[in-house]
Fold this sequence. Notes:
By secondary structure, the protein is an alpha+beta fold. The protein folds into three domains: about 15-85 and about 310-455, 3-Layer(aba) Sandwich (Beta-lactamase); about 90-160 and about 275-300, 3-Layer(bba) Sandwich (D-tyrosyl-trna(Tyr) Deacylase, Chain: A); about 165-250, no CATH class. The protein has twelve helices and 24 strands. It has a six-stranded antiparallel sheet with strand order 2-1-24-23-22-21, with helices on both faces. It has a five-stranded mixed sheet with strand order 17-9-7-4-18. The radius of gyration is 25 Å and the shape is globular. It starts with a helix and ends with a helix.
Amino acid sequence: xxxxxxxxxxxxxxxxxxxxxxxxxxxxxxxxxxxxxxxxxxxxxxxxxxxxxxxxxxxxxxxxxxxxxxxxxxxxxxxxxxxxxxxxxxxxxxxxxxxxxxxxxxxxxxxxxxxxxxxxxxxxxxxxxxxxxxxxxxxxxxxxxxxxxxxxxxxxxxxxxxxxxxxxxxxxxxxxxxxxxxxxxxxxxxxxxxxxxxxxxxxxxxxxxxxxxxxxxxxxxxxxxxxxxxxxxxxxxxxxxxxxxxxxxxxxxxxxxxxxxxxxxxxxxxxxxxxxxxxxxxxxxxxxxxxxxxxxxxxxxxxxxxxxxxxxxxxxxxxxxxxxxxxxxxxxxxxxxxxxxxxxxxxxxxxxxxxxxxxxxxxxxxxxxxxxxxxxxxxxxxxxxxxxxxxxxxxxxxxxxxxxxxxxxxxxxxxxxxxxxxxxxxxxxxxxxxxxxxxxxxxxxxxxxxxxxxxxx
Length: 457
């Protein structure tokens, strides 16, 4: 009798699963039959919360993920560095202090803190760091620095952007590189009226501009072109006429920008500096050698927000700078080599050790900006399922934005879109999914995918 009672339940569960699978398959076929998708590639994978397959379409196919790549980076960082991990920025000096004069050099060094001077936290804005630095200098009894002000940016190697990033991304805020010392999230804003510069969010050090903007249209169609350590920046494209538009760019040399700002701030507050203002890599570029920050005579240690707070913004606002910093940090701390190649290799090995087929995770960076990232939807679902079982999952999950009524991370590059996340249906079924669509041309690519994902509601 008990077996007879179980049959309707089993039949109902099987029918429900098949019904969802059929609905998803119908929506996928409808989308792929449109003219916009005639040359498109799709990888789609859905499982329940226990990892049981619900539906897949080319689930093993590796496609360009865009920013859903951040799922792999953030989860690996939370596990290997720990959710309470903090970056550090220090101030120290060489030589001796006598009668208020530092007879030596003054140093600022960081282990790559991407939040230094960030506006996202009230207590970490530029003014906060400057004020704490000034108080530490006064407490040390320094009124005059006879030597140089040096920002030691040597913690990471010289290459600040991954090799696969497109040239037309590098000068824009989302293409900011990561340095041993980062400042103001390596981003600046320009207020532009039509095609004329009106003001900058702060004075950029030693950057010469070529303005080829034209007016027209109703939205921001501009691009900034510059490169790390460059002294030339160009902006072109089109902005609406008769209105002020804010355009955000990538700071070419954040460590030097910090050095210049600190010098001005200290001198405005009665601390004079006799020597030059420079950075470790600025000197190396000119063929000169300069000493690194000493480990002794430290007068300030400034700590970042904890990693769980950083991951929140990394996922919620898709900050590429944070992803590349985490890649280099894991490479430095786990393999003592802060190169992008080492970081990417470490990330791949991490997920391989969690059971993901390495052929399905061909990483190129930590943020997804590179179109050379090729990842399958199945691999992303496996990573999401792994994260769900970990003690740090709540910090990971909280960072996911809610889009179209679904808790999911999105990714966007030219004619490509991806979504990956978690969804509970109205019937109480918990799904884990990833959908990646490349080369969908024309029309709204997000709406095309939303129609498919609506089946999970």
